[in-house]
Amino acid sequence: MPYRSLREFLAKAEKEGQLVRFKEKVLPEPDIRAAACAAAKIPGGPVLLFEHIHGYADKQIAMNVHGSWPNHALMLDLEKETNLKSQFHELVRRWDRYPIPAKRVESAPLKEVILDKSPSLFRELPLFRVNPMDGGFYLAKACVVSKDPENPESQNVGIYRLQVKDHDRLGIQIGAHHDLAVHLRKAEELNMPLRVAIAISNDPVTSLVACSPLKYDEDEYAMMGAIRGEPTEVITSERGNLNLPAGAELVIEGEIIPRQRFVEGPFVEFTGYYSSSMIQAEIKVDLISRRSGPIIFENLYTGLPWNEIDYLMALNTSVTLFKQMKEEFPEIEAVNAMYTHGYCTIISSKMRFGGFAKTLGCRLLSTPHGITYPKLIIVVDEDIDPFDLQQVIWAITVRFRPERDLVTVPHAPGSTVDPAHLVRGLATKLIIDATKPVFPDIPMSDASIVELPPNLPFWIDKILKRMKGAK
Amino acid sequence: MICPRCDDGQACKIFDAPEDASWEVYRCPNCNFTWRSTEEEEVTNPKIYSPKFKLSQKKIQEMAPKPPIPPLRNSKQRK
Lengths: 471, 79
Prior knowledge:
heterodimer, B: alpha+beta, 2 helices
């Protein structure tokens, strides 16, 4: 059964042994960050639920919801032991069900309390500093809903980092390549505020799709429905006629102040580095709606990889790129964009003709995500599993010829939070063609690859049984 | 109150813990830094706050806007 809320998922995680509760009092800093970091470092790490935050007796915090492959599998309602490649192909299969449009509901727990007179973010949320030198307390996993000012039918749901700067002020980081930047640009050209609604603590598929690099005109809610296998429930915001995920614990409503920027950051990004302080857009909050009981605040720890964010943005990014590229190039077998949000992306494909790997590398760079993020692109043949780095490195060592197979695209658009940048927002892309050369390229004529023994599976099975003591 | 990050003197308390007066939260109106009284001294003490993360007025004035602010649609200042 798909989960309609974070609470339903937490119940499932607990039943499956993937949730650890802390009933004892914990400090907002440094306990939450240290525990969340630890959970993601443990193979198969659990969800953490803190039930008593020092100073916030009536609130709970959930961390590491997506932070392991078992948690990721449970999100997809799969057996928690489901391996990575199987989860990738299951996501691909569900992607093909797009679109399953959202279903509108008239009531939801998040409307039980409406605070429209001087709402306070500090009072309503158990805030904490994610990393010591962050510029403030951040909401790192909240889903921001906005719509195109000129085409209200076009709405976007995305995860953007939000810095709580005051009771009613939120800094927001919007990259120029993000969909929300298009909405903001149009509003600012007209000198109009842009209404936004921010959904806190959602079911895990909502977060997964919100941070997937879909095309501008693709509907995140219809993709959530496709992944879930049934329509996602949405409810209308109090102001601005925005569609909210109905399962959220709490929603913040407000507007982005037009044509002004304010000091924001730093904040540790998915790179494992603090991003610089910059002047960024700001939201004036005017309403908060929430459940009436004690809320659960879900947040994201971002630290030295791997952490929850690496799991959260791994397969959704990979599958999105795979589907977008496969439309033109059906030869593609799989795409692995799991490393540093796709800074390194590995494409596995059949080869049409010599040089084709370079075509694929260039196509990646013209996808919405590929425009900025990938800077190390490795193309391998279809016999290489791009999720198996031992195989990928082997392919590079025996098939890659630097004098012919290395392409650089200098000074191309780059990620603005890349710590290796010389000019912020520009990066040199590197394509490594680690495929076997085929006609009209010069083939490796005297090279003969060895084949695996045909009865290998039999012997693997036999050895494993002996290791377990079976007869 | 001195802001640990930019040393501005206008920082002030903006929130008390809802439970047992466990801590206070402070805010600097100059650089938007916020901190909790119970955090590590490296975060709350202006004298030992990391120089690498300190913000001066010069640094703030040199910051580029993200995302860039577009020209007004009906602006007559177009070139």
